[in-house]
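Run log // design_07
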């Protein structure tokens, strides 16, 4: 980096002293001061000081990915949902930092990153998440002024099958679900019924309190999620919504409320006795109990998300319109459910919820056979 002249130049038209340093091959103009404030000698001295400062900046150590991550944690990561923070930290510590932490950001080239991702023995979706996190980190480094603004090289990286699951959670038949609930004790039976009948994510189920139930309006309000026993925001803005409660499902909830020792409005609906009600039953406990019951009836690869897949399958089976399904699944983008657009009326949603509850509570499989005539 050099200046065209080591002396300050008079700009009589503007009444200023200027110089013309060349930065990254480009001639720039820098104001030194006003003519009436500085003599030629004083202005020349300021030019020398400016050039020294620019030289120091030019030899500044370029950032490593570890430096970018440290700043990203302070500026951006703490503002994200807890579950997003937790996942990002896991991917950073397990995969990204061990491989690229000491590398200069400029060394992250598309080919080397894509080959590295392909070499990982991970599901395509997980490798896709790693790719997106790297992309965000490089975007952040440009936003923070750590590297020059330009094309993000990770944009050229492709992960085949990143949008697909390696293994889809199984959807249960009506008979399988009833067999499963017969092997569950309380409160796990009620938890399974509520999750299936409303299509809840497990994080939403665990975050329910008794105050969320509107007994008069036959609704339940979804407000928060529980991830790692940490109260968190909902996954999407569209997830925060009231869900209809079928009379049969309300009766099940009312019965559980009568027998639980944690039935006050502020209590968790499925409070943990081990934690004296201060926390809900843990995800691990719920999942382990479900998998144990599923194994006894011969269902393999069963997880809590299977209920949400089952809910979606049963909505199809009882003849629910695709636009109604999108609203009931609370997908912010209908393409997540199906590539169909439209809106629904409240009565249609209530009717669909009641049909699912009838399948779950009374095993009324005739609803499926009648679906074509609805």
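design_07 sequence
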């Amino acid at each position: 980096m050099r200046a065209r002249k080591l002396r300050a130049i008079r700009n009589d038209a503007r009444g200023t002293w200027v110089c013309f340093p060349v930065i990254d091959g480009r001639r720039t103009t820098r104001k030194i001061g006003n003519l009436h404030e500085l003599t030629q000698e004083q202005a020349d001295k300021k030019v020398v000081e400016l050039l020294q400062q620019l030289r120091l900046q030019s030899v500044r150590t370029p950032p490593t990915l570890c430096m970018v991550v440290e700043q990203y944690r302070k500026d951006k990561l703490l503002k994200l949902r807890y579950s997003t923070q937790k996942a990002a930290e896991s991917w950073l510590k397990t995969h990204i930092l061990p491989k690229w932490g000491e590398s200069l950001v400029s060394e992250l080239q598309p080919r080397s990153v894509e080959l590295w991702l392909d070499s990982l023995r991970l599901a395509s979706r997980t490798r896709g998440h790693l790719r997106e996190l790297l992309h965000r980190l490089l975007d952040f480094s440009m936003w923070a002024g750590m590297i020059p603004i330009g094309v993000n090289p990770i944009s050229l990286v492709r992960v085949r099958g990143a949008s697909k699951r390696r293994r889809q959670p199984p959807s249960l038949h009506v008979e399988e679900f009833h067999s499963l609930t017969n092997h569950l004790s309380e409160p796990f039976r009620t938890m399974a019924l509520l999750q299936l009948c409303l299509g809840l994510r497990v994080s939403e189920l665990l975050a329910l309190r008794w105050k969320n139930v509107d007994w008069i309006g036959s609704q339940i309000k979804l407000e928060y999620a529980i991830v790692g026993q940490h109260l968190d925001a909902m996954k999407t803005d569209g997830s925060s919504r009231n869900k209809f409660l079928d009379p049969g499902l309300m009766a099940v909830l009312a019965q559980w409320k009568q027998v639980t020792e944690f039935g006050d409005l502020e209590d968790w609906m499925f409070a943990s006795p081990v934690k004296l009600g201060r926390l809900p039953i843990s995800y691990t406990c719920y999942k382990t109990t479900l998998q144990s019951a599923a194994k006894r009836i011969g269902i393999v690869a069963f997880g809590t998300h299977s209920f949400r897949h089952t809910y979606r399958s049963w909505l199809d089976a009882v003849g629910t319109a695709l636009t109604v399904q999108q609203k009931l699944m609370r997908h912010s983008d209908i393409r997540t459910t199906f590539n169909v657009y439209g809106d629904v009326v409240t009565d249609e949603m209530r009717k669909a919820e009641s049909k699912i509850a009838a399948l779950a509570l009374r095993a009324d499989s005739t609803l499926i056979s009648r679906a074509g005539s609805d």
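Residues 174-373 form a domain with the hpI Integrase; Chain A fold (CATH 1.10.443.10).
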